[in-house]
Amino acid sequence: MAYKAKAQMQNEARIIHHLSEQRAPDMPWSGPIGIHVQARFRVPKSYSVKRTERCLLGHELQNKKPDLDNIIKNILDCGQKILFNDDKQVCFIMASKNYHDKPGWIIEVWECGEEPS
C-alpha cells in the first residue's frame, strides 16, 4: 500500500463525497466512458490588477502546481466503484486548468456513445 499524506486523503474524501452526491449512477458504468475536467484556480493575491485581469480573460494560463495530469488521475482514482468500475474504461479525456473568479473543479463523466450533459 502506498503512503498518502493526510491532506491527500482529505482531498480524496472530498472528491469521493462530491462524486457520490452529484448524480452518480445507481450502479457504476461498465462500458467505455469519457470525462471532461475544468480545474479553476484563484489568481494569486500578489498579482497586479492588470495581471489579474489578463488571467481572468484567459490571456495568462495557470501553469503552476498542481499538474493537470495529477488532477485527472486523482479524479479517476476516486471515481472508481462510484461512476465506473475501472479507469481502464476511459476512452476520452478533455481537461483544462485556468484562473477563474470562482475556483473549483467542474467534472463531467458520460458513457461513450452518449452526448455529455
What does this structure look like?
The longest helix is centred in the first third of the chain and has 16 residues, at 6-21. A 3-stranded mixed β-sheet has the order 2-1-3, covered by helices on one side. The chain is an alpha+beta fold. Helix 1 packs across helix 3 (68-79). The chain has 3 helices and 3 strands. The model has no long low-confidence stretch (mean pLDDT 91). It has one domain: 2-Layer Sandwich (60s Ribosomal Protein L30, Chain: A), CATH 3.30.1330.
**Major sheet characteristics:** 3 strands, mixed
Query: In CATH terms, what is the fold-level topology?
Result: 60s Ribosomal Protein L30, Chain: A
Tell me the strand order in the biggest sheet.
2-1-3
**Can you identify the CATH class?**
Alpha Beta
Please estimate the helix content. Answer: 25-40%
Termini gap: 36 Å
Q: What value does the Rg take, in angstroms?
A: 16 Å
| Overall strand count | 3
